[in-house]
Amino acid sequence: MDKRLLESVMKLNGDTGATLAEFLGISRGTFSSKKNETNGAEFTQSEIAAIKTRYSLKAEQVDSIFFNQNVS
């Protein structure tokens, strides 16, 4: 996962971790764990789909953010 890319998309859209967590229906701590991949935490398919819709992301952008094998 490329957390820096996710953070830049969030900032461009005026979101913070707290606002996106609320949108996804998860706690700020859970969001942070998923963003940082703490203890193997990952976003679910439905959360990724919701983020894609919220930010009008293209499939390539979703792949770059969530399926990038490089550690950020």
Summarize this structure briefly:
The chain has 72 residues and is mostly helical. The chain is built from five helices and no strands. Helix content is 62%, strand content 0%.
Helices and strands, with pairings:
Blueprint: H1 3-12, H2 17-24, H3 28-36, H4 45-54, H5 59-66
Helix pairs in contact: 2-3
Report what the structure shows.
This protein is mainly alpha-helical. It has one domain: 434 Repressor (Amino-terminal Domain). It has helices at residues 3-12, 17-24, 28-36, 45-54, 59-66. The radius of gyration is 11 Å and the shape is globular. The chain starts with a helix and ends in a 6-residue tail after the last helix. The mean pLDDT is 94.
CATH class: Mainly Alpha
Large-scale geometry = globular
> Pairing-aware structural class of the strands and helices?
mainly alpha
Poorly predicted residue ranges:
none
Could you tell me the strand content as a percent range? under 5%
- Output the helix-strand order: HHHHH
Distance between the termini: 7 Å
What integer is the average pLDDT?
A: 94
User: CATH topology, anyone?
Assistant: 434 Repressor (Amino-terminal Domain)
For the record, the count of structural domains works out to 1
H/I helix tally: 5
- Tell me the Rg in angstroms: 11 Å
Keywords:
globular, 5 helices, 434 Repressor (Amino-terminal Domain), 72 residues, mainly alpha
